[in-house]
Design a protein that fits this description.
The chain has 176 residues and is mainly alpha-helical. The chain is built from five helices and no strands.
């Protein structure tokens, strides 16, 4: 029996995945919780500045935070994943640039290449390039060959008609 026993092993069993809706709901709940904590921290700072009554204040707030009480150092330091970068949503007004940005070498070369191609095509259509001149010469030769072939064909057709009329004339004379 191979190592690991049955087919499939233990690694592929019982995997569960979260729905995107669940993830969004968790993210919203986390954001709301952070906002509430910030508001409470701001309110507690205002209370501490205003009036300090003996026996009240920070002890009461610790009791209220019992459900959210953190263990160990977590209560002292608010730590998040340092590798996680929150993406900021940019507005269209912020995206528009006041001053033109400098193009990279690749972008500059690409633009120059396109402009050179357009210039070449304009000159080619005007018949000023070597390739265009060669194409026009080749077209002239082909036209001349076709005209000669058409002229020859026309002459052959006329010769056949003349021969046919001559043979009709001979056959008509022989019938008389």
């Amino acid at each position: 029996m191979p190592k690991g026993g049955k087919k499939g092993g233990h690694k592929g069993r019982m995997r569960t995945f979260n729905n995107p809706e669940e993830i969004d709901a968790q993210m919203k709940a986390e954001k709301e919780r952070k906002k509430l904590q910030e508001e409470e921290a701001g309110a507690s700072l205002n209370d501490a500045e205003g009036e300090k009554l003996p026996g009240s204040g920070s002890e009461d707030s610790d009791d209220e935070d019992g459900s959210q009480k953190r263990k160990g150092v977590e209560g002292l330091i608010d730590i998040e994943n340092p590798n996680r970068v929150a993406q900021k949503n940019k507005k269209v007004t912020e995206i528009q640039l006041e001053e033109p940005r400098a193009l990279s070498r690749r972008e500059r070369e690409e633009i120059e290449k396109q402009k050179a191609k357009e210039r070449y095509m304009k000159m080619h259509l005007a018949g000023k390039t070597d390739q265009a001149k060669a194409d026009l010469a080749r077209l002239a030769i082909v036209r001349k060959q076709r005209e000669d072939a058409a002229r020859k064909k026309e002459e052959e057709r006329k010769a056949k008609e003349a021969a046919a009329t001559a043979s009709r004339g001979v056959s008509a004379l022989s019938l008389k």
